[in-house]
Amino acid sequence: MNNFIVGYGETLTTKVDIGGGGGDKKHPYTISDAIKRISSQLEEIIIKIESKPDAECAGGKVVVKFIQHPSYLAKSYYPRKLFSAYGMDDIGSRAVTIKPEKWGVTKHPEAGLASCVFVSGTKDHYRKLLTDLKSSSLSRASEDVLRTLERIEYFDADEKIKNIDASGENLNLEVVIHASADEDYIVRAFDSYTTLNGGAVRREKAKIVGGLTFLPVNIPRGKEQALANFAQLRVLRSIPKLRMNKPDALRSPVSSTVKLPDWDPDILSRDFKVCIFDGGLGDGNQISNWVTEIVPEGMEATNPEYLAHGSEVCSAYLFGPAQGADCSLGAPYTPVDIVRVICQGDDDPDLFDVLTRIENVLKLKIYKYINLSLGPNIAIDDDEVHVWTSVIDALLQDGDCLAVVAVGNDGDLPGDYGRVQPPSDMVNSLSVGASDGDDDGWARAPYSCMGPGRSPGVVKPDGVIFGGSPQNLFRVYSPRIHSFIDTMGTSYAAPYALRVAAGIDAITNFDLSTNTVKALMVHSAKQGVHDLKDVGWGKFPTSPESVITCLDDEATIVFQGELENSKHLRIPVPLPLSTDATWVHLSATFCISAIVDPEHPLHYTRSGLEISFRANEDRFTMEGANPDTKPFFSLGKLYPSEYELREDAHKWETTLSKHQRFKRTTLQSPVFDVKYHAREQGGAISEDLPAIRYTLILTIRAEGDTSIYNKILQENRTLQAINVRSRIEV
Questions:
Q1: Does this model's pTM top 0.90?
Q2: Domain map of the chain by residue range?
Q3: Which residue ranges does the record assign to the Peptidase S8/S53 domain (predicted)?
Q4: Which of 307-316, 421-430, 443-452, 717-726 has the lowest mean pLDDT?
Q5: Residue 71 exposure: Cα atoms within 13 Å on the Cβ side
């Protein structure tokens, strides 16, 4: 008899009060040193901005970079008090690596990660600040901020220009402006400035996320430098092409008899809805019993290539890859909708129209799971968040919908060109790469894009699943020709992973949140000997049945609940006292959905978890100190030499997963203490954000003790094994 995963772990949790601590800060610079250094730098900036034309400065404002010392990354040091004191606005930030003049401590690296804050102010604002610096008239609060600064710099046009394809006479650009929905005057000013330079802004296609406005712009080649002089412009780059699959990907027909699963509407779960955004389905297919095609207005015209891709992505979701010599197909778990988002003659090079079609559907809030096997064909940028990522991530941050996203097929390109592609860098999604097989000896498929992602969101892809390789192709049923096709690509891996994720939900009679399903997928992934940047958390399981069962000497418990801002929640590890084992293995996966701020890539998530593991709950002093407290998760060990991370990077990740082994004798009423941290835009502490939903998947394995599962249920009567629908034979 199978032991199924256990639900209602949240009934075991309690709220606790834990005191904080911290010593005096060792500042690299005295206040007098800081005033001298910053005064000199500000004088140079004012000389530059005095002659800046009014047409380049919306509202008479200029943007300056305030770069903090690496020692002041913590959210409590965010320099907003200085800006507000002088009427300036902090409008965004990014991470930079710098070599400061001084460190303030004996042991330090040569260079460190620092926060670069973009500040908007009038020329008078900067003059007033310089006057007060020279006359020592700053308030104490402003002085405290000033000593955290390493330097201030003018935001030069050259550093705003990225990835320009200058092959044509006119450039199609994606431009990012520091302008919120309430700052239309900035967009109007930019429109006028672009016209002065012979260009045109497509304002009707604007996408506004937080404090950023994304705009498609057409401008004569050679004018990009002038365009970048606009003060509130943050970045400009060529608009990438749409990716679905590699143009040279094999698509070989297979001679084999096709036998589709029997159509039985009674065994399909209809408790939630699933949607695929792709090229459509078209008439004359063989899967219309399971698939409903939605064709937005104006999308009626299409072509066979788009229909083939869309219908085969649907097939991969419904049936998975064909298995064995007889090409058997798996039975679908749910019906699925497919929304046609690309069509014949859809040569919109900026992809804004495609994104709008996706956005319009997501705003309806009717789908619990979606699949994206398309997106911009460009590697992610650590400094800037792409418009696709920004728009879709914001629509997913309430946790009501899980997006499963293909990472792209350029993993065989050199260096950063092979990194994951938008929008698979979203933190509120499950990004999927391709493995070259399912058997022992599997590896990342050579074309599958690699990590790391941006931090937060550093572990990308989230995982891999079979997507085919030149030596082991993905055999998919093609509804358009009622035959099998041998092919490969993350386009097929993503819906295959979605089949498993939605299948977990479909076969269980339990209210699983999208965070829980994502956490179960990550928790069940097997990394093996592979590098994290290649496979993320590991290879995902290929059947939902394998996810919901436990081994003989283990129990997996699902905790679903809410975390209150700045409060501690104690989550016990219900290890029975009578556990008969020398070694105990604990595997824990935490998952949350987070509010995102694309204008602040360094502080991209506004929700984070501080997680402490205590091997012995009773050894806890009144002051909150605990000799047995240790970090369970540490991202620093994930990318030790290849990727620089801030010291507290793990606290701002939406997904954390780790396995550790303990001597049984060292665990006496072990617990996780979890604190939910919230920050405002840019990183300043916030007490206003509401409670968030969290999931913890906890597996307790006692080597050789096959009674542990029943012991846990007997000792914790509020826990219940999750029921499985009778249609499934496990």
A1: yes
A2: 3-18+548-721, 31-159, 170-230, 243-538
A3: 288-538
A4: 717-726
A5: 21
